[in-house]
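Key result, reporting period 2: structure in, sequence out.
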């Protein structure tokens, strides 16, 4: 079972990027899907999450209003649209999947609630 994160790259401040997370080996239709990020030497931090139904989302305060998470249930993928990027958004971004949830609206901001993790994709915002 793998989560393949893609879409990272080098951009300038104010630019946009769209990250994608594509599972292989199983579907995660019953799981909340989230994005976390990590800067070298710092702890992994929550960025955004979408519930299994796609109808509930949550964002870190630092990205609220700039990032949008979505999931395409037909294609079993999750996207993170990142607009107005700042230098402080520079990090390795990881997608993660939770254990299956009975609640269609359940979300979590805690890394411990996620059992499957992708390999990460590097986002660098620099002029």
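The corresponding designed sequence is given below.
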């Amino acid at each position: 079972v793998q989560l393949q994160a893609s879409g990272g790259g080098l951009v300038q401040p104010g630019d946009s990027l769209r990250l994608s997370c594509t599972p292989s080996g199983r579907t995660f239709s019953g799981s909340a899907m989230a994005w976390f990020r990590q800067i070298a030497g710092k702890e992994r931090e929550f960025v955004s999450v979408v519930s299994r139904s796609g109808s509930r989302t949550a964002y870190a305060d630092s990205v609220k209003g700039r990032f949008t998470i979505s999931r395409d249930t037909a294609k079993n993928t999750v996207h993170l649209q990142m607009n107005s990027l700042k230098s402080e958004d520079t990090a390795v971004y990881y997608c993660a999947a939770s254990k299956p949830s009975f609640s269609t609206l359940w979300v979590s901001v805690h890394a411990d609630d996620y059992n499957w993790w992708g390999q990460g994709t590097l986002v660098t915002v620099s002029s």
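The first strand starts at residue 2 and ends at 6. The chain has a mean pLDDT of 94. This case is discussed further under Risks and Mitigation.
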